[in-house]
Amino acid sequence: MHKLPKKLEKKLENRKEDNSFRKLSLISKGIDFFSNDYLSFSSSKKISDQTHKLLQEYKVVNGATGSRLLSGNHPLFKIVENQLASFHNSQSALIFNSGYDANIGFFSAVPQKDDLIIYDEYSHASIRDGLKMSLAKSVKFRHNDLDDLEKKLSKFNSEFENSEIYVVTESVFSMDGDSPNLEKLAELCEDHQASLIVDEAHATGVIGKNGVGLVQEMSVENKIFARIHTFGKAMGCHGAAILGGSDLKNYLINFSRSLIYTTALSPHSVATISSAYRFLEKDQSSLEKLHQNIQHFKKEILNNHLENIFIKSDSAIQACVISGNDDVKMVADLLEKKNFNVKPILSPTVSRGSERLRFCIHSYNSFAEISEVLKVLGNFVANNQ
């Protein structure tokens, strides 16, 4: 067997030396404060039963058998895409295999050579990878800083007068859990004739009435060029969709390589998306409990005098900054010994010095669990100051 090239061996050794070496491990037992399953949909028997009924109704069972442009466009796609477009108040929806596929498929295909993309500096890796594949020029603006964005829009307006300018943000940022001022951001883009793209991954199923997302909660959907909704988080299943105009959908079908050249989602995956959305519309109890838990978590941050190390957030993601890979892993291990699963986010995933514990709040966490995990964290911080 061939040895790994020395350059690659060196990169792995560097990861081990700075304590950022990644490895796959089985999920350990303990109270879940780390998964993206915010509403417990991934284990819902009601959703599973509804999915089974849909598969029987449309007489589809296992694999998609090919890409959507060949043999894989089974009947459930059209039904569920219409369902998504209606739920999210959009002209059209196009399902992709994942949020990653949707982002690289969009950004590698839509912005053209003479166009400009201005993106939030904290944008997800899937967006950044899509930007690398694009022929357009890309520049970043400071995180959630609309003044900085406006300066860049004003600076580049004349240079890109005959081209398109795209602005990219997220409705809930995955590492900090914070959100932009979407109303002002949409107005700013409208004033500068820029097309706004919003990744709603961590807002889908969590924010707004029925979990519609931040765009609809702010009633700015008509000012957004494209939205990316993913289903592997609060919806508890798999896949993603790009929402936008019917012309955008047709363009993506023709030019988005991550859609064209991959086997389509299985009928089971698409049916599960439909079932999860049906359940989200019918039963608000999980969403209501989630928001109660978020508020209790924020209250307990204050009660344990931890506000100085938590990033301000109203979402299900609450980030506690503990600098240094060694230190943040040590605290995560301490919490695990107390039966709490909280994952450390290490550099280089986040910038050096901003390593953090990333708490994910769920509808199934109890007030007692929330109070106890923050009490343990508070005691550790107090004893190490």
Structural class: alpha/beta
Cα(first) to Cα(last) distance is: 51 Å
Helix residue percentage: 40-55%
CATH class of the largest domain: Alpha Beta
Order of helices and strands: HEHHEHEHEHEHEHEEHHHHEHEEEH
Tally of distinct domains: 2
Q: How much is the average pLDDT? A: 95
Strand content is 5-15%
Spatial sequence of strands, sheet with the most strands: 2-8-7-6-5-3-4
Could you give the count of β-strands? 12
Low-confidence stretches: none
**Total helical segments:** 14
User: Architecture of the largest domain, according to CATH?
Assistant: 3-Layer(aba) Sandwich
Gross geometry:
globular
Say what oligomer this is.
single chain
| CATH homologous superfamily descriptor of the largest domain | Type I PLP-dependent aspartate aminotransferase-like (Major domain)
Q: What is Rg?
A: 22 Å
Main sheet record = 7 strands, mixed
CATH topology label of the largest domain? Aspartate Aminotransferase, domain 2
Descriptive account of the structure:
This protein has 385 residues and is of the alpha/beta class. The chain has two domains: 19-42 and 284-383, Aspartate Aminotransferase, domain 1 (Alpha-Beta Complex); 58-282, Aspartate Aminotransferase, domain 2 (3-Layer(aba) Sandwich). 42% of the residues lie in helices and 14% in strands. The strands form three sheets. Strands 2-8-7-6-5-3-4 form a seven-stranded mixed beta sheet, sandwiched between helices. A three-stranded antiparallel beta sheet has the order 9-12-11, covered by helices on one side. Helix 8 (214-217) links the parallel strand 6 (195-199) and strand 7. Helix 2 crosses helix 11 (267-282) and helix 4 (99-109) packs parallel to helix 5. The chain is globular and about 60 Å long. The mean pLDDT is 95.
